[in-house]
Specification:
The protein is α+β, with helices and mostly antiparallel strands. The protein is built from seven helices and 15 strands. Helix 1 packs antiparallel against helix 2, helix 2 runs antiparallel to helix 3 and helix 4 crosses helix 7. The chain starts with 12 loop residues before the first helix and ends with a helix. It binds 6-O-phosphono-beta-D-fructofuranose and manganese (II) ion. The site of 6-O-phosphono-beta-D-fructofuranose has 8 residues, from loops.
Length: 313
């Protein structure tokens, strides 16, 4: 790596993947997603905040941003030539792009996670999970790549193809260039992001959170899964939970579109992700809208959550 005069911070996404010997078709797929995100970021910045079914000043159909983001991504993926099956949180149906799965990839994605936060001008993101072949019902450990794109004050992509986790930032030319390589998590959290209503927590989860607070962990919760995980990953010390709640034993977050890709990224950085009982990446999906409770972040903390849940539920 590194021509004279070029620091590694100017390496763009395609070149990084090529220099790290990634499969050509996987590189193509990731670069198509990067292309799609340029249009998504533009829609978020300038698009109408209308809801689907309404029209704009010019009488054109207005799409809610999550529906629009879904279409943008789907179109790119479908025309990439390297995709077999697609499933999106927005459509909730498997779309077959190619009957021939050999040598192709299948993709599960959440096109605009936390889309209601756009209305209040908070950060949102796209989350993507990639498998080889045509099967989307595999445990998350079988993912060959996972990534998220965070639309915050800056747009960044955090990616792993199974060789560490790296951050790429969108520059003024809307190209992603490498900004952090091989990010690592500490063993112990100092910030925590607790999802769900506290009065619905189980005894085990309640003790876990009280314990974090007793040890001085600071609350950092935005209500957006992508920015909340990004903060924990980049600071290298934190834990996010959206636990099992009274009346909601599987919590809220979706296995295929949200939990598997984030668990893959956090494990690649040396962290852990658990339902409170077993690793997220070992769950066998049963349906496209499976949900699971999650405790994700620094290893020691996730292990302590598991111990407390085993003892107290
Ligand atoms: O898609 C689900 C989501 O919007 C995530 O981004 C976020 O972590 C979670 O829901 C927030 O849920 P709640 O509003 O219950 O805290
Ligand atoms: Mn979501």
């Amino acid at each position: 790596m590194g021509e004279p005069g070029k620091t590694k911070f100017q390496i763009n996404l395609r070149r990084y993947l090529r220099e790290n010997d990634e499969n050509r078709d996987l590189t193509r797929l990731i670069c198509e997603i990067a292309e799609a995100s340029k249009y998504i970021v533009n829609s978020i910045r300038t698009g109408d905040l209308g809801v689907a079914g309404t029209s704009n000043l010019y009488g054109e159909e207005q799409l809610a941003l999550d529906v629009l983001s879904d279409r943008i991504l789907r179109k790119r993926l479908a025309h990439s030539g390297v995709v077999a099956n697609i499933v999106s949180e927005e459509t909730n149906d498997i779309i077959t792009v190619s009957e021939e799965c050999e040598g192709k990839y299948s993709v599960a994605y959440d096109p605009l996670d936390g889309s209601s936060l756009v209305d209040v001008n908070l950060a949102v993101g796209t989350i993507v999970s990639i498998y080889e072949g045509g099967n989307l019902f595999l445990p998350g450990r079988k993912q060959v790549a996972a990534l998220y794109i965070l639309y915050g004050p800056r747009t960044t992509m955090v990616l792993s193809t199974g060789n560490g986790v790296h951050e790429f930032s969108m520059n003024q030319l809307m190209e992603y260039t490498l900004t952090r390589e091989n990010m690592r998590m500490d063993e112990k959290a100092s910030i925590y992001a607790p999802g769900g209503q506290r009065n619905l927590y189980s005894k085990g989860t309640e003790s876990f959170v009280s314990d974090l607070e007793r040890h001085g962990a600071k609350l950092r919760y935005s209500g957006g899964f992508v920015p909340d995980i990004n903060q924990i990953l980049l600071k290298g010390k934190g834990v996010f939970l959206y636990p099992h709640l009274k009346g909601h034993p599987n919590g809220k977050l979706r296995l295929l579109y949200e939990l598997n890709p984030m668990a893959f990224l956090i494990e690649q950085a040396g962290g852990a992700a658990s339902t409170g009982r077993i690793p997220i990446l070992d769950l066998q999906p049963e349906g496209i809208d499976d949900r699971a409770p999650v405790f994700i972040g620094c290893k020691e903390d996730v292990a302590r959550a598991e111990t407390m849940i085993a003892e107290l539920g």
